[in-house]
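Sample entry (220 residues):
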Amino acid sequence: MIRLENVTKRYKTGAGVRTVLDSVNLDFPKGHSVGILGLNGAGKSTLVRIIGDAEPPDSGRVVRQGRVSWPLGYTGGFQVQLTGRENARFVARIYGESPRYVEAFAEEFSELGSYFDVPLKNYSAGMRGRFAFSVSLACDFEYYLVDEALETGDARYKEKFRRAFDERRENASVILVSHNEQTVRRNCDMAAILHEGKLDLYEDLKEAMHQYKFLQTKAA
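Predicted structure, serialized as tokens:
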């Protein structure tokens, strides 16, 4: 279970202070996969980073019961001065995984070739993303956080990632952000809508999609 307790997050902008999360209280139930829906700029990626402890809230707290991944594809937690191999082994030790297994899995799955032994600072954005996906999938999590990760790479690599991700979903829950409704329907059985700082959970995925389309029409 993941619980948000009075979570608030604000940003200063040129137009003033923007509230992304306004004293949000919500439980993400274990055994369910939840799609995060919201208009552009609503703060969906920020929400996922906060859930994954990659970014702190201004106030409130996130209670995590079980192992929670960092957002798949998020590269901010890696050391860019270290090589892919060194980063893989470092992450494995942090999460109590076998360094040898995580290293071998990430090297094969990322398909980076000789770049696996090159510092991440020399990677392209796409290479960093593939490395991050690979290390994420090599670790055993009860919750996988996904921020558009299923939409990256060429068609062959997307399919490879999807197959591996589907295997993980058999024994784990997913919290997923995607602008692709088909991706949400394929991977989630519930949805939450983030709008004007409020986060509402819908057990009925169809009802959530209907409400989201209403918001899109209203904003057009």
